[in-house]
Write a structure and sequence with these properties.
Rossmann fold; 5-stranded parallel sheet; 2 domains; alpha/beta; 15 helices
């Protein structure tokens, strides 16, 4: 496997489908030092133990500061989040890619490959993407680049063309529901529907900080107190509010056109006399406003603007 391995893979698919977990499993298999005939990690050699602990010297993660893991916090996401600087950037900067170039050009600590995991790759700014392109065009011997992307079309064509694309599909719905149930998620079908079939995204939503508020909306979106929703303080809550309202508008359009919903399974809805085109227009407007979520604007102002896409339609519907 290692002899035929391309120097760069681009794993792409829906967010929450398990692309990062797949890339990590693949990286562990590349670094595993056990003698074996199968291309699977042994889980017990020194390299595997270091990888599972997050301390393997031949692996480098490149992620935005706002989501990057911290060394010394393996297995403790809360502590890692607390260690991130206030106002951390949501993009991958050129300095990070330059540091990555230093890493891949050094010799291996364990005599095997050096693995660089860039996640999510579309969060690189233009300067960072150009810097990575240099390494992809002339890859150092033994360096393997694993790019994970939810939106590969946002990557420069020059970067995409130097990677072998690997599409990661969503898992079977029954298997995803069983996996969520095994993780202790109640009503897994409801969370899976809202996540668009992506099980890891569903788990994140069901166990996250804002899970109770989202669960109330999943049960009865019209009963949600929009005035209180507009008082969001964090950018994470704002992003979730925008996603929930956009999916609600889309569901109302689906209901009007086809008589069924996709995201809010538990909600039966009421009279559908608002035209589907109005709900679709509302969903498109919220989609444009969602681009503002990551900008350094007051979250309450952005929330109020997002909510303004729905009140007239809601008023007509009630």
């Amino acid at each position: 496997m290692r002899a035929r391995l391309p120097h760069a893979l681009l794993l792409h698919g829906r967010a929450g489908s398990g692309k990062l977990a797949l890339a990590e499993r693949f990286a562990q298999a590349l670094l595993c030092e056990a003698e074996r005939s199968r291309n699977l990690p042994c889980e017990s050699c020194t390299a595997c133990r270091w990888f599972l602990a997050g301390n393997h010297p031949d692996v480098r993660y490149v992620e935005p500061e706002a989501m990057a893991r911290q060394t010394g916090f393996a297995g403790d996401e809360d502590a890692a989040a607390a260690a991130r600087p206030v106002g951390a950037s949501s993009e991958i900067k050129v300095e990070q890619i330059r540091a990555l170039a230093d890493f891949v050009n050094l010799g291996s600590h364990r005599g095997g490959p050096r693995v660089a995991i860039v996640h999510p790759a579309e969060d690189m700014n233009a300067a960072a993407a150009n810097a990575l392109l240099k390494s992809l065009e002339e890859p150092p011997p033994g360096a393997v680049f694993l790019l994970i992307s939810h939106r590969p079309w946002r990557l420069p064509p020059t970067v995409r063309s130097r990677c072998i694309g690997v599409a990661v599909p969503l898992p079977d719905a029954a298997a995803a529901r069983a996996w969520l149930a095994a993780k202790g998620v109640a009503n897994p079908e409801r969370w899976l529907a809202f996540a668009g079939g992506a099980p890891r995204r569903a788990l994140e939503l069901a166990t996250g900080e804002h899970s109770k508020a989202l669960e109330a909306m999943l049960g009865a979106p019209e009963a949600t107190n929009l005035e209180s929703a507009s008082r969001v303080e964090s950018r994470e809550a704002l992003e979730l509010l925008a996603e929930a309202l956009q999916k609600y508008a889309l569901d109302r359009a689906f209901q009007a056109m086809a008589g069924r919903r996709k995201y809010y399974l538990a909600h039966s809805g009421g009279r559908e006399f608002v035209p589907a085109r109005d709900w679709l227009s509302s969903a498109r407007r919220i989609g444009r406003l969602r681009l503002l979520v990551r900008h350094p604007l007051n979250p309450r102002l952005v929330a109020a603007e997002i909510l303004s896409a729905l009140p007239e339609l809601r008023k007509k519907d009630l």
